[in-house]
Specification:
214 residues; mainly alpha; 8 helices
């Protein structure tokens, strides 16, 4: 049990680190041209395909793998005192894992397909890429409803079972509600969810590591 909590704590801290690295990459290094034609757009994507491929693997696939570990660790932590809420929360956590990993795979395969098509028909390739982008955003890039439900439910379970720090659980309630609100397509809500979840993952990781030592 303690070993699982320790592993879950490290997973939570790595989740926070992945969030931060994604913000840094897209905020400081990714400079995709906006007012350009399809040919120039795909020229930029082709030039940076490897970097984007790696970022998608880390941001989605690795994040999802770590999330699976964290979902299990939190379920083990909460199931004794709040079994029903913990089980329901875990269902949403597992679904979120699948959506996140699938988003990364679809993004990378979609990018490769669009670049291949762009050599013959840039306009058609742009249609393909926009479709792929919309699917990825809908599954996990810009819609965080499932993740929000997971955080919200496990925070309620932790409060009822008197697990974790009470203030951490209140932060989880906020994060969860913001995640659910991202069903409305507003970029500011997604950004608030991401930033607040960095704080939540970081605090959660430290708390789980501290509890595993007791």
């Amino acid at each position: 049990m303690n070993n699982l909590q320790k592993i879950g704590g490290f997973a939570a801290l790595l989740e926070a680190a992945i969030y931060i690295s994604a913000f840094v990459f897209f905020g400081m290094f990714w400079n995709s041209p906006a007012d350009v034609d399809s040919v120039q757009k795909f020229a930029y994507l082709a030039e940076n395909q490897v970097a984007l491929y790696i970022v998608n693997l880390v941001m989605y696939v690795l994040f999802g793998i770590l999330l699976a570990v964290l979902v299990l660790a939190l379920h083990e932590c909460l199931k004794m005192k709040t079994p029903l809420l913990s089980q329901i929360a875990s269902i949403f956590g597992v679904v979120w894992v699948g959506l996140v990993i699938a988003s990364g795979m679809i993004s990378n395969i979609g990018l490769a397909s669009a670049l291949e098509i762009s050599a013959k028909d840039p306009e058609q390739a742009m249609t393909v890429w926009q479709t792929v982008y919309s699917v990825v955003e809908g599954m996990g890039g810009g819609n965080e409803v499932v993740g929000g439900l997971w955080v919200l439910l496990l925070s309620i379970a932790a409060l009822k079972g008197k697990k974790l720090h009470k203030t951490l659980n209140y932060l989880g309630l906020f994060v969860g509600m913001v995640g659910i609100l991202t069903i409305y397509p507003a970029e500011v809500l997604t950004e608030i969810f991401g930033i607040s979840q960095i704080l939540w993952f970081s605090w959660l990781g430290v708390s789980m590591l501290a509890n595993s030592e007791r």
